[in-house]
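Thread: "does anyone have the structure for this chain?"

Original post by V.I.:
We have the sequence but no experimental structure in hand. Need at least a predicted one for the grant figures.
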Amino acid sequence: MTSGLAERLAAIRLRVDIAARNCGRDPAAITLISVGKTFPAEVVNEAVRVGATDLGENRVQEAVAKKPGVSEARWHFIGPLQRNKARSALDVFDVVHTVDRFEIADRLQYLLTEHWPGRRLDVLL
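Reply from O.Q.:
Generated one for you, tokens below.
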């Protein structure tokens, strides 16, 4: 018995492709982020196995617990980032979507320089 994740992912990708083409965009230029909020690592890992290569989480601690049980993927932080969670976020995430204050940007830059010299973090402002 299959979970149906592959079929649901394919259906969503088709809808995204149609919407992109309808507004003159290249569907390949759109990144679909599968959000694993509240789902256990086993379900998220199944999603990765069927092609969900970009994963979103809105809680740092949930991603920290979940990531070791999930195959290779690109992790996106999509929730509000607290200054005291910045280091943990950098341990887990490849992209931070929620840099909404200079204080957070400065903290991320400091931590990157101090602990990950040469690493570049993709952020959205």
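V.I.: this helps a lot. Residues 5-22 form the longest helix (18 residues).
O.Q.: and The chain has a mean pLDDT of 95.
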